[in-house]
Amino acid sequence: MTTLTLSEAAPLLKKEFREGRLIPFLGAGFSKPLKLPDGSQLIASLAKTLGFEPELFDMHGRFEQLAEFFELSGPTRFKELVYTMTRGFDSAEAEALRKTSPMHLALAALPWRTIYTTNYDRHVEGAFEDAGKQVSVLASFADFQGPRVRDVCEVVKFHGTLTQPETIVLTESSYFRRMALEAPPDQRLRADLLSNSFLFIGYSFSDTNIRYIWYRMNQLREQSQMGVKHSQARRCFFATHGAGLVQPDILEQWNIDVIQLDPTDKSASVAKLLESIA
């Protein structure tokens, strides 16, 4: 079991960052300070559109299953869902909060080469724009095929982006299709796995989808590092505010160190983690 304090993790992260080998992988929790709609609010919106009571609708499945049911209920339903999410996620209020979010300010202050995110909103790239920096967003096949801009951070939207609805991984079927990890973002991940360490921020231990990605990442890493001992392989890091006793052991088998952050002020502790890298 490997659980690190911030002071223990900082030198390791600094070393990876100095070598240009540290890549953030950001989840929904990273956008928490922006007060974006959560899953229950989105489910309630879908339920009302379909004539369900939100509490009853929520009992019929996980969010991705309910999103699939919503999509199947009419030919324009998915467009309606994307519109609803865009209004909630990329609102003027959220943008204003982003401009003062310690986490987003700390993220954009660093000269990253690559950032991955499973978030559909545009607040990761927006944080760099707020700082006067250019970014390149990669979500579709066309994005990966397009010209590359020198010295610009590439934001890989691993589950798609609201600005390109066809790239969004949201329904149960779309998650199942991605399990083979063969889409353009997956191919990029395979390449980055060979020589980089990832820092996961904003994820829950209960997030099945990201856990599957961790499992598959470790499989791909092992396939690529034939003959390399587990202890010699490049490690990844998972920042959390409550590690417990069980999860660190499970993540250790996937070559992931857990970083225990201060839970009393979650935004400030994540910002402090990012600042410690510099």
Automatic annotation (TrEMBL):
Q: Which Pfam families match?
A: SIR2_2 (PF13289)
User: Domain of life, per the record?
Assistant: Bacteria
| InterPro entries in the record | DHS-like_NAD/FAD-binding_dom
Specify the protein name: Uncharacterized protein
Q: Which organism is it from?
A: Archangium violaceum Cb vi76
User: Source organism lineage?
Assistant: Bacteria, Pseudomonadati, Myxococcota, Myxococcia, Myxococcales
